Amino acid sequence: MNVVAITDLAPRDAIERELLLATLSVDDANRRDVLDVVANAGAAIVDVNALSVTVMLAGTPGACDELEKSLESFAEVTVQRTGRVALPRLGPTVTG
């Protein structure tokens, strides 16, 4: 698909998100640790079997960085990330 337009969005004027998918080898010894990391990151388990777990996080680039760093301590980790996607905010940010 051809790129039609590129717009530079200032972070304060945009909503940015990224998708991270990671597959980890698991066994009885580390399965609980993997599940704890996933839960603490707010990620979701999207596939599980006896040998592996695949997790997903759709969040800020910083949140994806943190999850990826947390998963590095586990052996056999495969990570894919989409890169940033963004849309402009349509109104002022509401603080409360």
Strands, helices and their partners?
Elements: E1 14-25, H1 31-41, E2 44-48, E3 52-59, H2 61-71, E4 77-81, E5 85-88
Antiparallel strand pairs: 1-3, 1-4, 1-5, 2-3
Helix pairs in contact: 1-2
How would you portray this structure in words?
It is a single chain. By secondary structure, the protein is an alpha+beta fold. Helix content is 23%, strand content 35%. It has two helices and five strands. The chain has helices at 31-41, 61-71; strands at 14-25, 44-48, 52-59, 77-81, 85-88. It is elongated, with a radius of gyration of 16 Å. It starts with 13 loop residues before the first strand and ends in an 8-residue tail after the last strand.
Summary of the model, kept short:
This protein is an alpha+beta fold. About 25% of the residues lie in helices and about 35% in strands.
Task: Give me some keywords for this one.
single chain; 96 residues; alpha+beta; five-stranded antiparallel sheet; 23% helix; 35% strand
